[in-house]
Amino acid sequence: MYDSTLKTxxxxxxxxxxxxxAPFINAHPGYELAAIxxxxxxxxxxRYPHSKLYRSVEEMCADKNLQxxxxxxxxxxxxxxxxxxxxxxxxxxxxxxxxxxxxxAEDLSAFAEKNNLFISVYQNRRYDGxxxxxxxxxxxxxxxxxxxxxxxxxxxxxxxxxxxxxxxxLPGAGILYDLSPHLVDQAIQLFGFPKAVFADVWKMRNxxxxxxxxxxxxxxxxxxxRLKATCIARESTYAYTLHGMKGSFLQQRSxxxxxxxxxxxxxxxxxxxxxxxxxxxxxxxxxxxxxxxxETTSSPGNYMGYYDDVYKALTGQGANPVxxxxxxxxxxxxxxxxxxxxSGKIISL
Length: 349
Description:
Blueprint: E1 6-10, H1 15-27, E2 31-37, H2 44-47, E3 52-54, H3 57-61, E4 68-71, H4 78-87, E5 91-95, H5 102-114, E6 119-122, H6 129-139, E7 146-154, H7 164-167, H8 175-178, H9 180-191, E8 196-202, E9 213-219, E10 224-230, E11 240-244, E12 248-251, H10 257-262, E13 281-287, E14 290-296, H11 304-314, H12 324-343, E15 347-348
Parallel strand pairs: 1-2, 1-4, 2-3, 4-5, 5-6, 7-10
Antiparallel strand pairs: 7-11, 8-9, 8-15, 9-10, 11-12, 12-13, 13-14
């Protein structure tokens, strides 16, 4: 299955590089973490001394040995650096959000298709254990015809975190570009592409320049889906709430992979992250003619599944887990959200 090795480089060694990319690429038998970009520091030398250290993305793109490059830099740099990667003839994994605009996303996709290059958007939350628990409940039809759903991503960060590209006055900054790509992607995967969108986007904290709250309503023929995120939720609630004609399912955001990675745990192909230590879901429905109300516990997720799927796609063993088309649809939603907020109207898609 892993007869060849993909020589891979990553464009940044900040949080995403340290936690979500380098450990998985390094641990997977089908990859070689061959290059890392750090503009000023040498932090990667401690863990990955075997990789080449470059001081710019341009310099790394000139490395003829690299086959795949991960663009995991701030959002406002995505289009420019992804274009450099593709122009250098490299395959591309790009962090969410794909780009800032639909036009940019479509341009990258068209360039890659024309030049027979691979693009995959890093939507790692498809590999969260909590999301997969929700997906399984829906696949089993345990709730009957679904009529209402909510997916939320709440944090407690009452003051500015210090990163301008996250919360400052830069294109692509703010919670809409940071967190909504996760929720939008999950909603489309679970329920399909919506017919229309209505949205509210707000800046609730005084010391940030970018929006830190959103509420998005997806319209389907017989379903409404609400996506929501805030930065001032000290008390958390269920991340997923689903109501069908037969029953309801509530699921906490309980996946522990990020915490384990922050603690220095090394990932692997097998389940390396523990399951929640206590029940994290609640199913209240009708099974075999009887009303059942029971607690549930999700299985561990594994972000290694994403890189394994990318490897299989690049070696002809499987499909692209998150093709450019998925990223383009995500950008279509974000543009519709901004249009809805600006106009106060429902935007048809």
